[in-house]
Amino acid sequence: MILSERVTADTGVAEGLAHKCRQLLNTSETAFDAHMAIARMLGGHVDGDMAHFGFWTPELLDARVPDGDIFLEVLSPKGPLDLTRSHQDVTFERTFLPVARYEAHTFAAAKGMRAGSREQGGDFYCLVWRDAQDTWHRILDPLAMSLPFGAFAPAELYDLAQMQKRRGDRAYFEALAGDAPHKFGPPVNILQIHVPTATAGGTLASLTRQFERLSERVAGGLSLDPLDQIFLGYDAVQLLPVEPTTTYEVGPGFWHETAGDTESEVKVSLTRPDTTNWGYDIVISGMGTVNPVLLESGRPDELVAFASVLHNFPTRPKKLILDVVFGHSDNQGLDALNSHFFAGPNMYGQNMDYKNPAVRAIMLEMQRRKVDFGADGVRVDGAQDFKWWDAGAQMLRHDDEYLQLMSDMVQEVAGTRYRPWFVFEDGRPWPQEDWELSSNYRAVIEKQHDPDVFQWGPLTFAHNTPFIYGFWLSKWWRIKEVLAVGANWISGTANHDTLRRGTQVNPKLNINTRLGDTQMEILEKAYDNPAVSMLTYAALPGVPMDFLNATARANWGFIRNQDDKYGVKVVAEEAISLKWQVDEYEYSVPGNFKRLKDLGYETRGDLARFFEFLPALVEVTDYDLDHIAKLLNGVEPALAGPDHFTVPDLKQIARAWMDDMHEYCNVSNSISALDPTQTEFMLSLRSFRRDNPWLRDNLGPDDHFDYIQPVDGRTIFTSYRKHEGREVYCITHMEGGPSGEFDPLRLPIPGLKGAGWSCALRTPGIGGEYVSGPIVLRDSMGLVFTRGI
């Protein structure tokens, strides 16, 4: 049956939706209340054999488009459509259906549309309108729940009810059901994961298989290797953003229509989305679903499957935390959303118009739909960026009411209503120049009514470099804050932001060379440091978080290959990471940096010399690419690479760096080099924290924390904590020379006197035979003693 016969409009249902929209707008107590209800009607929905669609379309009012020029466009592939193929040319049947409108909202309904599922593809759709010159324009669905070809292509109608009905963790959620929504509290600790670099496959399905493997090994009591150990011992997994991101600035698009279209057919060149991104370059549109780059099958069910394997983990369920980015949009968002979504440009791209009730409601609805995939918690990126312009005061104000609405959102999975745990990254008054000094990292905590709301703490924020001499004592005032008020902070120094910043530090600074013999060793140990981890897990309050790429001693950086205009500048800023993360041997490995080698950078030295010139020229020319190419051609002796540099050459080199680095950062590359002593110690440390969750609390009057004085060229922290008869004493050598021989249990620390102490944890380098007595502590060494445990 041809599409126009299979799919028919139901104008009665569409007009009913428009009428309901009218009622809500006219009778709701506030405009925001109305738009919150209307937002539930937007996007594509499946109801038996009926599909209905809603769009917020103020641009149609702006352009004075009459009803007769607006249609729902339905597209269905005539032949097989394989979402696992890299490229295919597909002919789509097309039909146009009438719509019903009320002011800035447009609705449509259709019978006979095919909805997508795990096993089958669905029909695609978007809204279209025709102008006075008979030119057609598309309005994409920002609330779509399946975007196989990204946020800049028509959406796929998807059967969410079937996806939810078939989820493998229904029992987990059903057990939480009650008269009131269940409230998730904080986890004991968190593993932060970037899906594309976490496994060789780089997809959610591949990551799910990794946790399935772990489940079977744990359930079977099998021995654990370092690959197992770096994933285990965590109460929760936090994924870096899994939303659709930007696409290639100069194309081609993943959905590219070719010539020869007719009213009933359209030929499309389809490319499987393949961008590389660290996750934070979002366009707001499509935030309710999953980035197709992360989907091995092209089906959003993969996120549900991942949630299920975590929730069904043997011994105890693991929580899933999703990282959401609603504080800004990349400039590409201007091509995906109407202009009413935006409030003006910022350093990232565009500010969102949070005070527009429709925008406010739609973004909250995107959040609701995303978390309904089955997340137990939500991390909000850049909460300090949620601002609105107060015209009366002529200043930007933080939209704390919006942040409260985010954490008040009630989700529903498997019939169970619940509220997730929330953590906010908020460094206000950033970007004020003195923000590192001025921020108290408690702005959201102090304003929210939920006692379980968290923020990233000061040792977790971006600019932390624990491999520079003097770091720990320079942060002493912050550490004292952690001790006093850190119970609701995320703790630890290794995350996607700190590790990235670490790779941008000038190696000529006063680097702690005791951490390793090479810059690579220094960086790896700085962010996977046994003493720092011991301090975080056995002494400091809060919820510890580790970044997989750090604990796996894999590489990391600002990974984004979509830029054309500023790609060379971004790579110039990242070039210094070559000194920290790539040595001659790693560069020479045949599988590493293949693209750059093909461009003439056969050795690390070749690339390093080019990278010495590039950042300087970007600076002195004020990023004039033509001038940069000209100056590079004048270097003597000539640089490796092209015989004659051109602007396209520079852009090609920048793209090659990003693509090569993305592959180089994959955790699978570093597994064989992991030290089982280190991975086993880190796992035992995490187990210790899980056995003593009370350590999350702020230090009490009977607790003690200090550093040994006089310093004498080394920083050694001591911590004594007590809870209901349980005592934990931790001593860690953070940096500097050897301590000299001393007995840790004979120091004049309140609470330490008396017998009964046992050595519970020793960092690598301290033999298992040590139980107490005199010892010499060196950089990155530490001990944990317990009593009454």
Describe the structure.
It is built from 28 helices and 32 strands. A hairpin with a 6-residue loop joins strand 28 (704-707) and strand 29. The longest helix has 18 residues, at 647-664. Among the domains are: 3-164, Immunoglobulin-like (Sandwich), CATH 2.60.40.10; 567-664, no CATH class; 697-787, Golgi alpha-mannosidase II (Immunoglobulin-like, Sandwich). It is globular, with a radius of gyration of 28 Å. It has 789 residues and is an alpha/beta fold. The model has no long low-confidence stretch (mean pLDDT 97). It holds the Pfam family GHL5. InterPro entries: GH, GHL5.
Question: How is the main sheet built?
Answer: 8 strands, parallel, barrel
Proportion of helical residues: 25-40%
* Helical run tally: 28
N- to C-terminal separation?
72 Å
What is the residue-averaged pLDDT?
97
What form results from the Cα inertia axes? globular
Which strand order do you get reading across the main beta sheet?
A: 12-13-16-19-24-25-26-27
Structural class, by secondary structure, is: alpha/beta
According to CATH, what is the class of one domain?
A: Mainly Beta
Number of separate strands: 32
- CA-atom Rg in angstroms: 28 Å
Instruction: Report the CATH topology name of one domain.
Output: Immunoglobulin-like
Model regions low in confidence, pLDDT < 50 over at least 5 residues = none
Work out the strand percent. Answer: 15-25%
Q: What CATH architecture label of one domain applies?
A: Sandwich
Spell out the CATH superfamily of one domain. Immunoglobulins
